[in-house]
Structures are given as C-alpha cells and as structure tokens.
Amino acid sequence: MNRPPRIVITGHGLVCGAGLTVDAVWDAITNGRSAVAPIQEWDSERWPIRIAAEVSGVSNQTLVEDRKLHKFLSRTDLFGIYAAGQAIKHSGLIAHRDTLDPQATVQFNDRSGIMVGSGGGAYRSNYDFFPLMTTAGGDWQKFGTELGSSVNPMWLLKNLPNNVLCHVGIRHSFKGTNACITNHCVGGALAVAEAAAALRTGEADRVVAAGHDAAVEPETILNYHQLGLLTGDALRPFDRHRTGTILGEGAAAVVLETLPAAQARQAAVLGEVLGSGCATEASGVIEVRPDGDGVARAIELALADASVAPHDVGMMVAHGNGTRASDASEAMAIRRVFGSDPPPITAFKWVFGHTLAASGLIDLVLALTALRHGVVPGIATLTAVDPELGPFPVSPIPQKPRSDVAVVLCRGFGGMNVALVVRAAT
Amino acid sequence: MTSRRRIAITGIGLVTPVGNDAPTVWKNLLAGRSGLGAIRGFDASGFPTRIGAEVKDFDFEAAIPDRKLAKFASRAHRFAVAAAAEALADAGIRPEESTAHRWGFSAGAGMMGVPFQELEKVHAACAPDGEFNPEGLVNGRYATDPVAFCRSQSNAGLAVLTRHFGIRGYATLVHTACASGGQALGTALKVLRRGNADFMLAGGFDSMLNPIGLSSFCLLGALSTDNDAPERASRPFDATRNGFVLGEGAGFLVLEDWVSARARGARIYAELAGDGNSLSCYRITDSPPDGDGPIQAMQQSLADAGLRPEDIDYVNAHGTSTLMNDRSECAGLRAVMGSHIDNVSVSSTKSCMGHLIAAAGAVEAAVCALAIRESIAPVNANYAEPDPDCAVNIVRGQSRPQRIRAALSNSLGFGGSNSSLAFRHPYDVEASLRDESSRAAA
Predict the structure, then answer these.
(1) Across the strands, what pairs with A230?
(2) A415: closest chain B residue by CA
(3) Into how many domains does chain A fold?
(4) CB nearest A179 (choices: B129, B150, B187)
(5) Domain range for residue A134?
(6) Among A183, A325, B219, B258, which one is least packed by beta carbons within 10 Å?
(7) Does residue B318 carry a catalytic annotation?
(8) Are residues A53 and A91 in the same domain?
C-alpha cells in the first residue's frame, strides 16, 4: 500500500470579536488586547453577566456580499461563509481552477470537499414564532391557519445547521465529500480531522474545513451562567483566580490539500496537519472527568497518528476556557502525556472568548501563525498560575516554541476531546 | 486495496412509526403496513397537514432506566437509546471497561433542540405581545432550567448515549438534513477503516413532529396534504404523489471488523461495503432535475465498495414522495445503472414509515441489511400510477423475494448533501475473500 500523502494547509480565514482577518487577530493577541466588552446585542445592564466578545460594527454585507442571500442565513452562517470564502480566496484555488479546461474543472469540483463544524441550536431563530403564538393565544386551530401569514415561508432554510456547507458549496461549486458536524465545541476541530482523513484516503484532493458559531444571545448567556460556567471578570486560563469562561462568536476556516496537489499548482503552504485524536469521556453533557482521561487519550492518539513523540512538541494551544474544572483536568492530562517537561503552553480564549464550535479551528489557525512567527504568545489576563496545577508553563509574556510542531486541544460538551497536531511551513 | 478492513453489520435496532423493535418493523415493512395517521402528539387540527408518522406505544420510562440520566434525554434521544440498546443486544457485544476506548459513536441528529414547551415559557416571559424582550428572562418572570438547557445542546444525544453505553472512543454527530443518517454511517465506516475504533455504534435519531417542526415543512409546502387518506399519503414515485409525510424515530447499527466478527461467531447481516458522499451545489431545497450530485454519490459508493452497477440487485431509494426528489433520484439512478436499471428492484420504505429526516438514512441502511439477509426486497407501498419521469423497476404490489447480492441506500438532504451507502451479501463477501486468499497463495 502506498504511503498516504502529506496534508498541507494552503489558505486560512478568520472572523471573531478581535478582528476580521488573521493578521488583525494576531495583532490583538500580541498586543494583549482582548475583544471582551459590554454586550451590545441587547441591553444587558440588569444581567448577571454583561460581557462577551461580539463581532460588532460589521455589516452583514461585509460578511456576505450578496444581500439577496441574507434572508436565508442566520448570524452564525454569515461568519462561516465569510471565513470559508476568505480561506478559499487566500489559497488561490479559484484562480487556479480558472486556468483548467472544462473537463478538468468538472473533476476539480468533484474532488473538492467541504467539512463544517456547525454551532446550530440557536435560540433566537425560534422567536420568529412569537408573534404567531401571541396571535393564536393557545388556540391551535388559529396557530395553524395563521401560520402562513405570520412566519416567513423560508424559515426552515434560514435555520438549517448545514447552511454553511450548502452555501459554500453553491458559491464555489465544490461538490465532493462533505460533512456538517454538530458536536458542540469540537465541531470545528473534528472538521479538520475528517478533512485530513478524507485527503489521506484519497476521497478528495482538497477540502475546506470551517467552524462557526454565534452563541452570544440572551438565553445562552443566561443558561451558561446558571450552570456556573461564565465569569463577569476576565477569562484567565490556568490562573489561580480564574472564575469562568466568556462567550464569543465567529468562525475560522482552512483549505487543506494533499502535498502533491498543492505542489502541482505551486501553492504557498502555511503548515501541515500531522495527526488528530478524538475521545469522549462518556461523562454526560457538562461533566468532565477530574483526571482529564479523555483529554490525555485524545492527545496521545493524535501524537501517535502524527508519529510525533511528546518531547518533539514545540508548543501547545490549550483549550483553556477559564473554568475551574476544565482547566484543572486539562493540566492533569498534559502532565500525564508530557511528564515533568511539557512544551510552552498558551491559550487564546482570553482574546475573543469561547467561540464554541468555531474555537478549535480558530485555535488551529492561530497556532500555525504562532509557529510561523516563532513565538508562543503570552496570556495577558494571567495574574498567577494556579499552584494546584503543578509546574505549568503558561506565561503572561511570550515564550519560545521548542520546535515547529504544535498540539491544539479542543473540548466540548458530552465529554468530548479532540487534539490536532500541526507543523508550521518551513 | 486488499489490506483494507472490511466492515460487518452485526447488530440492528429500530424504533419507527411501524414498530418499536427491528423484527416488528421488518415484518410490517414487508407487509406494506402503514404507520401513518392523524397526528396525536399535539393538536395539529389547524395545520394544512394534519397527518404524520408517529412512533406509537413507546415506553419512554423503560427506555432509560437510569432516572438521573433520563432527565437529560429528549423524545428523540429516548428513541435512540432504545434502538441502540436493541442493536447492541442483537450484536451480542457491548462496550466493557477494557474495550470502551475502542468503541466509537457516530450518529445523524435532528436539528430541533428546543422543545415547544420551553419555547412557550420564554414566550410567556419575554414576548406576551409577540415581540421578544430579553428583559423578561431576568426580571423574575422566567426560571431557567439547566437540565432543559443541557437537553437542547447540539450534542446532547451523543452525551446521553455515550454515557449510557460507556463508549469512550471516537464520537461524533452530523447533521446534513435528510442525508444525516447516511452520512453518519459513512463516517463510522471510515473511522473503522482507518483504525480509529474497532466497534462503532452508528445510526440516527430525530423527531420533528412538534408544532415548530411541522410548521417549518408546511411553510415550505413540502408535505402531503392528504389528510383524509393518511395511509396512502406517502406514495413515492407514483404519478399522483404530492409531498412527504413527516415521521420520527431512530435506527442504530453495530459495525465491526469482518474478520474479528467472524472469529467471535457473530451473525453478520451484511457488509457495509461503500460510502459515497457529494454536494449537489444546486439550490437549497430543490434537487437537480438531471440527478447531478446523487449520481456522484452513487458512483463513489460503488467504486468504494469495488462494485459495478450490474452487481446491484436492490436500491432503497430516498424516495420522499415529493415531485422533485423522486424525479431527480430516478434520473440519477438511470444514469448510474445504465442498461442494468431494469434489473434493479427499487423501493422507498418511506411509503410505510414516512420520512424520519435525520434518522432516515440509518433506518433505511438497516432495511438494506435485512433485505440482503432475508433475500427479499420490501414493497414500495401505495404505488399505483406510474410516472414516466420515474421509470425504474419499482417493487410494487408486494415485497419481492429475490437474492440480493448487493444493495444501495440513498439519502439526499436539503442543502444538497447526498449520501449513498453500499451493502454486500455475506456470501458474496466470503467468495471475494476466498478469491483473494487463493490469489495470495498463488
């Protein structure tokens, strides 16, 4: 059997509270500038939690130019389509396709896949039914007869969890293998894992992987707060004074290709996906195991898949969501995998909040950016490392990566853990 | 290619509108019995469509004996737990402490997270006049319910099932509308082939039979309005078809390595032999009239399984009973099967079960496995008047006893995702294995 091809990344796109481009977000990170701010979306003055990292001051048309589409898209879709479009543009794939003859173009499209990690589960979409519910006043006869005149006939289409997949496909004519992963926070990271797997087995020659979410809405904030997951302070990963996470919104996307496909069109390479690992802790919706068993197994699986030894890992982008239980169990897992000598560790959620289904993909894009710059960014909100975590190499100031390999860690509800191993382009 | 793992289907569990276990479902499908009727779960009397395919006489309490965990399970999650438990019992194997890491989970999950009762609470607190005012959530009129919130999360079903069955390996959920179940099984196949797991619990679960779900499809005009004749309302490929009938349920399969399944003496229904997966890139709800998209999915599935069109004896069609889907699918089938098309038995079991949306592909994969094992193609019920645009060999009148060497199951979703899965008879797989080993010996 032939060795599977190497998988490279040739384009990236990113939107979050800290900016509309990878460069803008990187600038915010390296300058210690957090996008966490008072919530703008609604008047949150009387709310127990009044902060989030929103994408504010950006028109829908900036995100998706075709205004005719806006009535078919929810807020999270706009982010996902934007990031995927940026990544595809950045990769130069479309310019390349334009040079192909018609037959080769058909083959190109059939061999181009899309994998999306979708947030979905939005609450506000259901509010479109409120006027009807008021009109009906509990009268089901009336509910049914007034339905057509009260709710937009295209309501379902606006709320399909697979909208980004569908619209990116239509926009770019990518018709190959595809998935829309609705696995809470690990959706984006799993999209990358599945994209790389599809390329390794020859299902496709290129895949755009995207993750998107828009969780900053009243019910979500309130419920996350009730579960004790949110802080009104700052997001301080691994800090002794950490008090919770902060919700953000946004999307990221990367274009993955087999190395031969990228070389054939002389594409610039940003980095390489070396491996992935996925494990659940079977712990239910929100509980995590204190020993970090699933986290450790995900990292171990990813390192084995990548044929990378723990001491060859140059840096780690932790999930670091700033909650007491998640960060503590993550530190346990990192100690289990790396022993007394873990690589420099950072985490990015203090900059743009926890973007849920988008988070793993955003972290992947930024991990590669960090490796290319040869710097492990500092965590500006860190005051003092939690001594209970043991020796743990996070820092408020920048560190040096030990090599050009990074591990990106992503966790989600359902006891989900996904780790990605990537290498920067040299 | 010879070193690639073959994947066996060794367990099946079903909860559908025509029965709450696989043997009952199978018996009713073969007899062409309809599970469609007037909607009873809520008052649908004012809706343009008042019929559906509900799961009936389901014991919600018995589905999850662990009361604490049961609180976190929605209606569809409970269908899923029951179907998965049946599949594992049927396979005669389940995750143990020593094997939990090698068990994976992949399922197609529905899009409806928030039950209508929860929405009513928010409406009462925040929008008595119809306009949403978030103030109502924090001014004391509204009480949050953390358990209801957890239940509504996108991967709550995964959380409940992996915990209930103790699965600790690769786990994922997918949603590509009506293609979800098929794509989830395709993912499971790939996860097993690449060695990320040794066993997969794979399937789909959904219930959109609630006021919002029914509304959403009524608004699109996608549902049959044959309210006076529900048993005949779903008639895929019939010239008079006028929309699909919304159903609910769950289907799960146990998938494992062929060689080790045989070694442990497992009963193998069929091989899950191939996965094809494409995007139509046409319109959100419309299917391309020429079958573009489904064609690539079927071709990939055949190629992935190492099959030729003439190896296929049965196709479980997506066959929703909408004008457009059935036409597009038949165009695709004709293009893929070529001159072999008249030899392929085609049926849509949605004629009896209705459309189970995210669960459909998984349930119908189970139907293909049963059809192969029992050597009978289930009937396409309610097919009376042929449509020249759907000129394929429909299994009409009654189920058709025949040897099925290989079968395809199509699932085509809103948003243009297409899934086609290929299945092979164990006898033919064993013959291939013997050929391979004698070639290797020579």
Answers:
(1) A245
(2) B159
(3) 2
(4) B187
(5) 124-156
(6) A325
(7) yes
(8) yes
Q: Are A348 and A317 in contact (CB under 8 A)?
A: yes
- Name the residue with higher pLDDT: B107 or B113: B107
Distance CA B243, CA A100 (A): 41
Q: In the structure, what pLDDT confidence band is assigned to residue A120 with cuts at 50, 70 and 90?
A: low
- In this complex, is the C-beta atom of A286 within 8 Å of any C-beta atom belonging to chain B? yes
**pTM for this entry:** 0.97
Chain A nearest-CA distance from B429, in A, is 21
- Do residues B287 and B325 touch, judged by C-beta distance below 8 A? yes
Do B155 and A227 lie within an 8 Å CB cutoff?
no
Pair (A134, A217) in one structural domain: no
Beta bridge partners of B386: B238
The pLDDT tens digits of the residues spanning B414-438 come to 889 999 999 999 999 999 999 988 9
* Residue where a domain terminates, one of A112, A133, A156: A156
Smallest CA–CA distance from A149 into chain B, residue: B219
Domain boundary among A156, A180, A199: A156
* A165, HSE (Cβ side, Cα atoms, 13 Å): 38
Judged by a CB distance cut-off of 8 A, whether residue B113 touches chain A is yes
Domain shared by B69 and B122, yes or no: no
Backbone angles phi, psi at A206, to 5 degrees: -155, 145
Among A178, A205, A281, the residue to mutate for chain B (most B Cβ within 10 A): A178
Label residue B441 by pLDDT band (50, 70, 90). Answer: confident
Q: B59 vs chain A: nearest CA distance in angstroms?
A: 22
Same-domain pairing of B134 and B226: no
So what's the ipTM on this one? 0.97
Mean pLDDT score, B149-167: 95
Residue B308 sits in a domain of what CATH number?
3.40.47.10
pLDDT of res. A122: 77
Indicate the residue of B128, B137, B155 with minimum beta-carbon distance to A413: B155
Q: Is A344 strand, coil or helix?
A: coil
Mark whether B270 and B142 lie in a shared domain.
Answer: no
Measure the CA–CA gap between B411 and B164, rounded to whole angstroms: 28
Of A114, A163, A218, the CB nearest to B137: A218
